[in-house]
Each structure stands twice: as structure tokens, then as C-alpha cells.
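pls ignore typos typing on phone
phosphoenolpyruvate + seq
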Amino acid sequence: MSDRKPLISGNWKMNLNHFEALKLVQELSYQVSVDDVEEVDVSLHPPFTDIRTVQTVLEADRLPFHLGAQHCHHEDSGAFTGEVSPAMLAKLNISYVLAGHSERREIFGESDALINLKVKAILKYEMTPILCCGETLEERDAGQAEAKVSGQIVAGLDGLTSEQVTNMVVAYEPIWAIGTGITASAEDAQGMCAVVRSTIAETFGADAAAGIRIQYGGSVKPNNAKELMSQPDIDGALVGGACLEADSFARIIQYRLAE
Ligand code: PEP
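k done
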């Protein structure tokens, strides 16, 4: 058993206005107890327009969830229409920021080099990056999954210290499993998370590899979370669709109780 505390993160994507956000957080707070979060860290990643509302309710009601963001620019400020800086997110007491989600890479053309700048900018403001990586189905079928994911890890973490990497989070998310209802088998997910950890060991040393938390993401649901989470190299889950409903996200957070 590792002593890495699992992290379950809910990526709301472009869903829920700030009224709906408030309702979801309140419903979640009725279903998740303080005991649950002694065992597991939980982060919520709403759209930017909801963050201030969610921050206010988390702080006013002392709810045991960390606040997260889905994306940021890498500069502190400037002429970047439509963007939000890590400095702005830090002011909202954000703890975790996703970097390099496959939807950002594929739809918005974010490169490994740009994602590396974002990871550094997030760290500069003392927030924790969740660096996302994962292969397409074509790459998997061509036997390229390991090389693709290792390459994303090496490029995304370029220039960081071992200490910085130790405290980070990586989310392994096979693209073919995101939003499709198809989950990687626990064996495949474990195998790829082990590749991520060994890549980190080779590049940043054994302590960084032992400390970094690696999430699996891709159609995580209440009925598959326990098996995925019982794998030795899986330290949490990045959840999309199933985090938009309090009951299903609460049951993922409480995966230990599943049959
Ligand atoms: C995601 O958005 O990162 C994700 C894994 O989505 P889903 O759980 O819906 O597959």
C-alpha cells in the first residue's frame, strides 16, 4: 500500500451555470461526509463563470472539497482576449488546475511545449497542476500508446525539479475512453499508469516517482471506480460525465464502500 492520498477530481467541462453549480455543490455536500474526505482528496473543476460562486459556498460552509480550474493561460496578465491567468485563479483559492486535457490539445491545438509553460505558471502561483496525457485508439492499435504517453510526460514536465514533480498530479486518460462509456480495463489502466510512473522515475528519480499521484480518467463510474482505484499505480480518478450528478460523484468518492 502506498501512502499517496487518492485524489478524485470532477471536471465539469462546459456545463452548469452558476445557479446550477451552487445546487450541485450543496447536493454533494449532503452526500459526502468528513470521514469520506479523510481517506480521499476531492477537487471540483467548474467553468470559470462558476468559480467565484463555488469558492464562496465552499468557504462559507467549510465544505471539504478543493477548488480546481480546467485551464489557464501561462502569462500573468496582458493582451490575451478571453484568457484567464494563473494569478487570477490563485486569488480565488484554487488548489488544482488541469493542464493539457485532451480536449484542449485536440480542439484548441495546445502543444506539449505550451502545456509545459502552463504547468510552470501554475506552479509559480503555488497551485498543483494536473497534467493530462493519453493516446488515441489509432495510436493504441499501432502499439504506440506507451511512447505517446511517455513523450507527453517528459515534454510536459521539462525543466521542473524533482521536488516539484513529487507534489504534482498526472491524469492518464486514454482518449478513446473519454466521454464514450468505454472504460480501459483495470489491467490496461494500471499498465499505463505504471508506464507514467517509470517514466518519472527515469527522469526525476525514485522519490518523485513514489510521491506523484497518478489518476486514471475515462468513463469512470460508480460501478468501476473501486476496481480501478485498487490498482497499485492508480491514485485517483479524473471524472467527467459522472461528476455532473451529485449521487454518482458521491458514490465514486465513496468507492471503498462499493460491493
Ligand atoms: C474527462 O473529461 O477528463 C473525462 C474523463 O470524462 P468522462 O469521465 O466523461 O469520460
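The mean pLDDT is 97. The two ends are 20 Å apart (CA to CA). more later
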